[in-house]
Specification:
With 118 residues, this protein is mainly β. It is built from no helices and 11 strands. The chain is globular.
């Protein structure tokens, strides 16, 4: 069973930074496109950033220039560095893995809460 475990969430003041991590197990990590999604109460789950198996990164417009997604295939881990955080970034952040050769094969983590508040 593939496992994705997120960590690094918490409470931070506006303008602050957090670094989320997602560790994958029981998976050939390098064969997966990895993404971070977020979901705030009452909202749909939103794609925040993706890093492909080729190490190409894409972002939703609202986080461009503030968030950076990266991966370390030697540690089976994907990261989301979040800077200049805003209250509207508050959400549960989920890690997602999609198998590059069959995008319908995907896995989710359980999420980590990020709260941006003074």
């Amino acid at each position: 069973q593939v496992q994705l475990v997120e960590s690094g969430g918490g409470l931070v003041q506006p303008g602050g930074s957090l670094r989320l991590s997602c560790a994958a197990s029981r998976v050939t990590f390098s064969m997966y496109h990895m993404s971070w999604y977020r979901q705030a109460p009452g909202n749909q789950r939103e794609l925040v950033a993706t890093i492909s198996k080729y190490n190409t990164a894409t972002y939703v417009d609202s986080v461009k220039g503030r968030f950076t997604i990266s991966r370390d295939n030697t540690k089976n881990t994907v990261y989301l560095q979040m800077n200049s955080l805003k209250p509207e970034d508050s959400a549960v952040y989920y890690c997602n893995a999609k198998y590059a050769q069959n995008l319908s094969t995907e896995y989710w983590g359980r999420g980590t809460q990020v709260t941006v508040s003074s």
